[in-house]
Structures are given as structure tokens and as C-alpha cells.
Amino acid sequence: MDKKVRLGVIGTGHMGQYHVNVAKQLSDAELIGIFDANLERATQIAEKHKTKAFPTVEELLKETDAIVIAAPTFLHHKIAKQALTEKKHVLVEKPISQTVEEAKELVALAKQNNLILQVGHVERFNGAVLELGKIAEHPLLIESRRIAPYNSRITDVGVVLDMMIHDIDIVLNLVKSEVTKVKAVGSSIVSNHEDVASVVLTFANGCVASLNASRASQAKIRTLNISQKDSYVFLDFTNQEIELHRQASSTTQLGTGEIKYRQESIVEKIFVHKDNPLKQEHEHFVKCIKGESEPMVKGDSDIKTLEVAYKILEEIHGKK
């Protein structure tokens, strides 16, 4: 495909507006238009970004090669299936769907029609995460913290599918081993879903991952720590920074009336190319459509991520 990819965005809420803004900046794609169930809002966003607000999903699909789905989670499967059936490439916000069965159906449909189906795991395109795979080769212990103040715009899913799913995706991609045990606890604080969750994943290769997420905090922290045999990696998602600690040593000295602890290590700050992760995600989507790149996040990977997420939810809420 030599011409520009004709792109449409479905859903112009909080996240959808970011997608529209980024889509306008792409050099190899053209934003044809947008759709939102709230036509008044869609018209306002369209005027702001000098594009067209379509009255129906069907009319938008007729004019595009690919769509970005930023609608509420319960609509992901319906819209994505409609688009894939119409032979349109799809970038859908996470989670891909409400059930694993729906996710498998979408992945199979994309394969059947030779289409790109990309899920919006935007953290995969964080500059620090892109570097992480080069230095985290044999994780023994992984610890993640993803906490933030409550945002009333997210009402259809809890903290596991809203926030923790990013870390599940990253951890599964790093460890590359089967999850053998899932232990999870959580509770509802400010919504009808779980707002805090603490999870321990055990892998077949012996690695252990501790994932903690909260959307009822008074601070915003997004970090990942990885312990390996000869190194310790600290990643800050917000600042897109990585520290690599090596050759650590510690001593304890007994002085007059006090005990002093001393630790030394070589700390290396990894150079990270910082860019807008959402823009990187869109550019990757377009390159995959044009055959210039292989999908970074493949369908089977998305299914595994969703399977683990739902095992966590079963642990927290009990099987239904």
C-alpha cells in the first residue's frame, strides 16, 4: 500500500480525543472522520480537528481502510467484529473485549481476512519499555506499582482491566513462561468494581511477579522493578527512565550505640528515546497495515493477557 491509510476513529470520549489528535499528526495516514454516539460532541471534536463527524459507524467504515476503537469496553467486540467483517484493519483500546471467547473470535476473524488487529497496550510503546527487553533477559522477581487518583470517566471496568492489564501484558512478554499460579486480592473503594488489587503470579520457570494497582490513591506512581541474578532494573513509566544497578555490595557496621548499614552499587542510566507513546502506537499500526513492520503485540499474546486478567478477577470476586 503506497497511498496514505484512510483512518477513522470511533468514540470521542477522554481517550478517543487523544486518538483523534494523534491521528491528525500521522504522515502516512489521513484522518477521514470520526463517529460518536453523542453527535453533538462528535461535531465539536470534528470542527476542532478539521475533520468530518459521520452519523453512523457504517458510513464511516465505507470511507476508511482502518479504524481506531475508543468506545466503552462493552462495545469493543461488536464494533471490531463489524469492522473486521467489512475488511477494515482495527486498533482497539484495551481490553480487547469483555470475554476471552470474544477475543478469540476477533483474532480468528482478523487472521481469516488477513487484517491487522492491534490492541491498545500503549505502554509497549513507552521508550523505557522498548529498551527494557534488551536488559531484562532472565527476571527472577518483578514488582510493579500502578496507582493513581480516581477518575470518574472509567465506570465499566475495574482497576484490573483499566490499569493493571498494562503490567500483565508487559510481564508476560518479559518472562515468556507459562503462569502456573495466580493469587489475588482486591476491594471496591469508590466504584462498583475493584479499585485496588494486589496480585502474585508464579511462572513455570520460577519467576515471581507482584503486581499492585490502585485507582483510589492521592498520588500517581507507575514503576516496575526487576531483580535478576547480576542486576536490578528500575523503570519509571511516567518519566520514561531506566536505572540499571550492578555489582551491589552491602556491609553492616556496629558503632558506639548504633548500627550503620552501607550499600554500594554501580548505577547506569539507560538512554531512552522519548516520544509520545500513543503516536508511536499509531505509527506502528499504520506501518503494519502498509507491510513495513510486523505487529509488536500479536493476537495470541492479547488472548493470554486477557486470560490472566480474568483469572485475577475470578480470584478477587469469585467464579460466576
TrEMBL record:
Domain GFO/IDH/MocA-like oxidoreductase: 155-220
UniProt feature coiled coil, ranges: none
Residue ranges annotated for the Gfo/Idh/MocA-like oxidoreductase N-terminal domain, each copy included: 6-121
Gene Ontology molecular function: any one: nucleotide binding
Positions of transmembrane segments: none
SUPFAM superfamilies according to UniProt: Glyceraldehyde-3-phosphate dehydrogenase-like, C-terminal domain (SSF55347), NAD(P)-binding Rossmann-fold domains (SSF51735)
Gene3D superfamilies from the UniProt entry: Dihydrodipicolinate Reductase, domain 2, NAD(P)-binding Rossmann-like Domain
Database matches in PANTHER family: BILIVERDIN REDUCTASE A (PTHR43377:SF1)
Protein name per UniProt: Gfo/Idh/MocA family oxidoreductase
Organism encoding this protein: Leptospira bourretii
